[in-house]
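Suppose you are handed a protein chain with no further information: no name, no annotation, nothing but its sequence. What can you learn? This example shows the usual starting point.
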Amino acid sequence: MEKNALWRRVIKSKYGSSRQEWRLNTSRPKEMSVTWWGIVENSKRTKVTKWTGLNSYRWVIGNGKSVLFREDLWCGDKTLKEEFPRLFRLALKKNCFVKDVARNNNFEEVHWESVFSRKLLDREKCMVEKLNFLMSSVVLNEEVEDRINWIHESGGIFLVKKLSYLLAHDGMKAIEFQFDRIRKLKVPSRARSFL
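A reasonable first move is to predict its three-dimensional structure. Written in structure tokens, the prediction is:
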């Protein structure tokens, strides 16, 4: 959202990934500040990744220049790498963007023979047909940038307030605090006020 904000430029220059603008490089912990290291470590916890992991984001395709073809969630309910692992083991270019695969801003004229390292078997051709069907409705628009949506918010925008709510209420039952039990404790009144 705030592409030119100072905080974003600082984080991107210090911890940004060379592969993709929105991802962060977390592989060099010794080069991280203590604060950033804490953020990275927290983001790896299961409770947090449930709400902020890669499967919590879905791309809306515009020009296809920001979205990795096989690793990002943009077409279907899984990444294409998860949906078609066999096809992508055969792919010549492993880290290409959606724009690199499309022909004339759509996927109807893709020459799959040039994408794979060998001629496809019959069962692999069936997988390509399924892949073509999944991508048939996607048309690139050169004038619109790709947009990432957070699936846990109806507007698609990541909100810290919503994440805090989800983390606080994740699998917790409502706790009814029993104040009357504290009042009935046989302790000095000074101690009771701390409880």
